[in-house]
Amino acid sequence: MQELLEILSAMAAQKDKVRDRRELLLDMADRVVKAVSQEFSCKPDEVAILLLSTDGRHLRFVAPRAFAELGSIPVTKRDSIAVGVLARRAGEVINNVPMVKHVSFFESIKLRDKPAPIQKMVTAPLLVRGQAIGVAQISRKGDNAREAGPDFTPADLRRAQELLDSVAPFFAEARPSPY
Fewer Cβ within 10 Å of end Cβ, the chain: N or C? Predict the structure, then answer.
């Protein structure tokens, strides 16, 4: 973890020297996804990071990288799990995602040979000094809950929140304006 923080710090320090701040942000997200996926024994495409636009109206994907060009989620979208967590500034564990009304459009996008639905998910806000700047989601995908793997626990949410609290300031620092 310390190594990740040192890398993110070095990357953020270069923000004024890079030509494309958005690419820097995406590169930082790739590093965080790698660490999170290792920590939670999941695949990199099971980790999503969304940052709040500078106007506060949308959540935009920075991970998976393939989603960065696909659009955004308006913060007025009531059936978005990510939007709800952003608004409450409190994370949640859902081990029956198919039974919860949510935005499922992004699940249908092919990142693997065959798209798999999200079965279980931890969603945590990215907080900087108490302000929500985005959301991260760690999921387990599969054709059914058993295939997806073990349930997430409150301890997983705490662990995710600790990890995300440590990286959130780097995202805030590197986020281009406007974004």
Answer: N
Q: Measuring CA to CA, which residue among 35, 12, 44 is closest to residue 25?
A: 12
Which residue has 């995602």 as its token pair?
Answer: 97
C-beta of residue 16 within 8 angstroms of C-beta of residue 174: no
User: How many Å apart are CA 73 and CA 135, to the nearest integer?
Assistant: 12
This prediction has a pTM of 0.91
Residues 6+ apart with CB under 8 A from 107: 115, 117, 118, 141
Looking up tokens 């290792």, which residue turns up?
A: 38
In the three-class reduction of DSSP (H, G, I as helix; E, B as strand; rest coil), residue 132 is classed as: strand
Write the CB contacts of 32 (distance below 8 Å, at least 6 apart in sequence).
4, 8, 49, 63, 136, 167
Classify residue 170 as left (phi > 0), alpha (psi -120 to 50) or beta: alpha
Model confidence pLDDT, tens digit, residues 150-171? 999 999 999 999 999 999 999 9
Report the C-alpha gap between 105 and 86 in whole angstroms: 19
